[in-house]
Amino acid sequence: MRLIYFFLLIIFISFGCDPKNGEFAPEDDFELSAPAYFGSFNERIPEDNPMTTKGFELGRMLFYEKKLSGDNSMSCASCHQQSNAFTDGKAFSPGIDGQVGQVSTMSLVNLLWAEHFTWNGKMQSVEDQSTEPIRNPIEMHENFDNAIRKLEDAGYNRLFQEAFETDQITEELIGKALAQFQRALISSNSKYDQYLRGEYNPTPSEKRGEQLFFTHPIPGQLRGGNCGDCHLGPLTSGAIDEFQGFHNNGLDHDENMDEGLMAVTGNSTDKGRFKTSSLRNIALTAPYMHDGRFRTLEEVIDHYDNGIHQSSTLDILIIEGSNENQASGERPQLFLSEQEKEDILAFLHMLTDEEFISNSKFSNPFENENN
Fold first, then answer.
1. What is the pLDDT of residues 141-170, one digit of tens each?
2. pLDDT at position 20, please?
3. Where are the alpha helices (DSSP H) in the chain?
4. Cβ–Cβ contacts within 10 Å for residue 325, how many?
5. What pLDDT is stored for residue 357 in this prediction?
């Protein structure tokens, strides 16, 4: 059945037609669109891997292609499921051999405005991030010689020719195609986006929650949730400058703390610092934190309110974030009211983008086949 699909797809591509909706697709660059308030992105697309329609379509097929795993049972989409905003709802995901990883699956969203991928920042590009799970012995556990042979047997050479002007399938080109698909995963039509565009009127609770989210508290003067100090701007993600988007958010004391960024930099001051992920579609991506320790958003809010653990690398933004005056060295607390917690939660739910999780352009192209 897959060979039939490939031949049909080749016919569609050859005539410049999108097989998903029957509309004629452009033969030149693949056009991305995003709100101006996300920031510019064209300069963030590598010169040696421009976005093209054919590259995106190939990347989409590879993203859902189980032949990239050692036993043909898993694809990238096994752990990055569209209905869960490209996560899988598990604290630790099992690979093809039943082994589980050490960190939770991160959401793939708005990657154009991100750098230093994975929780500890070990991957420097979307291309590298895309190929590492294929060879990882805990995840898809396949070597690229075998993966390439299986793709060749399935008729992918012609699709690589269409996308990259060569019928030779290589690890590098697999990574480039996967990266093109993932860079196109832009979420920008949540209620929050509609509000920013003047198309949605927030409830009083949502509006209060937005204000709390982006406000750094000043005791006795200004109440805030201190969230936006790390989850910056409309993207609600960390800074993209050199490791500035990594924080120790008080999950553990020194003796129990995971390495985090220190595993990459070797610097002890980076122990316990993890990548600040985007909160886009956060209501769909439980469980939370790098180790999936929190099952609900309510637990996450309670952690920041009164569950912070002191450590030598605790982030200064948390140490200085409180709605009450605290003595030096005292365990940081926000002292949020129950209503304030409910309001922040209401705002977080505004970040859900139903269009993103149902967009057929991002869906499984093999879903109608009898696999």
1. 999 999 999 999 999 999 999 999 999 999
2. 33
3. 2-14, 53-63, 76-79, 126-135, 144-153, 157-164, 171-183, 191-196, 204-213, 262-265, 297-306, 316-319, 338-349, 354-358
4. 8
5. 98
Task: Give the integer Cα–Cα distance in Å for 29 and 334.
Answer: 48
pLDDT of 370 over the 90 cut: no
CA distance 43 to 328: 44
* Whether residue 287 has a cis bond before it, omega within 30° of 0: yes
Are the C-beta atoms of 125 and 45 separated by less than 8 Å?
A: no
32/363 Cα distance (integer angstroms): 17
Phi, psi of 50 (to 5 degrees): -65, 155
Return the SS3 of 264: helix
C-alpha–C-alpha distance, residues 86 and 284, integer Å: 9
- As a whole number of angstroms, the distance between CA 121 and CA 124 comes to 7
Q: What is the pLDDT of residues 216-233, one digit of tens each?
A: 999 999 999 999 999 999
**Computed from CA positions of residues 239, 101, 286, 87, in that sequence, does the dihedral angle turn out positive or negative?**
positive
Provide the 3-class DSSP secondary structure of residue 361.
helix
Show the domains of the chain with their CATH numbers: 2-187+357-362 (1.10.760.10), 191-352 (1.10.760.10)
With a threshold of 0.85, does the pTM exceed it? yes
Angle at 302 (CA atoms; ends 297, 304), nearest 5 degrees: 100
The pLDDT-based confidence of 6 (bands split at 50, 70, 90) is: very low
SS3 339: helix
- pLDDT bin (cut points 50, 70, 90) of residue 24 is very low
Distance CA 93, CA 73 (A): 14
Residue of 138, 155, 151 whose CA lies nearest to 178: 151
> In one letter, which amino acid is 261?
L
Contact 255, 354 (CB under 8 A): no
Contacts of 126 (CB under 8 A, 6+ apart): 111, 117, 178, 179, 182, 183
What's the mean pLDDT in 116-129?
95
Structure tokens at 344: 């922040």
Least confident of 83-97, 230-244, 283-297: 230-244
